[in-house]
Amino acid sequence: MLPHSYELPAALLLVVGGVVACFAGYRLFKAVLGIYGFILGAMMASSMMGVTNTTGMIVAALVGGIAGALVLMFAYFVGIALVGAGLGAFVAHVAWSWGRAGDPPAIAVIVLSVIGSIGAMLLQRYVIIVSTAFGGAWTMIVGGVAAMGDRAARGAAGADVWILYPLQPAPGQRWVSIAWLVMGVVGTAVQLGKTGRKNRT
């Protein structure tokens, strides 16, 4: 969690990180791992500080963010497996939220996470492209909605460490899911066509 005054800059950083991940995630995969490692580490570390300790939260966020970034950047293959697992868990939550309230069954999240990890290792290039495109698109949406002042999405920008990807950043607005799908597909197409293309020798 970050102080209220830091929520807008954090939201803008989410947008920038989302753009990089969505449109250049494969080519800059280590950088993307660093970005998401930093976000995760900063959120977890800052949540250990008291709400009134602004300096402590900022220092903890920076230290935790750097540690998280280094862990994911140096653990490349572990990072790929984690991306696949994260994508699997994300799919479970999105699919469940379409027709039901609450969280999906734990077994469904675990099974889809395992399938995502295995798929990521077997089809690294394509899984990286798709997961970074859709993950980046979601990060852009959450950051953008948070920057515009939506209270639920602002949690992802620093107010609540456990809302890293709110499935309803703008409750009642179905355009969010459509925008996510469209931007994810566009990001995937861009990466497959340009940034994800293997260098020819």
Tell me briefly what this model is.
Helices cover 73% and strands 0% of the residues. The chain has 201 residues and is mainly alpha-helical.
Task: Give your account of this protein's structure.
It is a single chain. This protein is mainly alpha-helical. It has helices at residues 7-24, 29-46, 54-74, 76-99, 106-122, 124-147, 151-154, 175-195. α1 packs antiparallel against α6, α2 (29-46) runs antiparallel to α3 (54-74) and α6 packs across α8. The model is unreliable at 155-167 (pLDDT under 50).
What portion of the residues fall into strands of 2 or more residues? Answer: under 5%
The major beta sheet can be summarized as: none
What spatial form do the alpha-carbon principal axes imply? globular
The separation of the N and C termini measures: 47 Å
Spans where pLDDT lies below 50 across 5 or more residues: 155-167
Based on secondary structure, the structural category is mainly alpha
Give the overall pLDDT as a whole number: 76
Helix content: over 70%
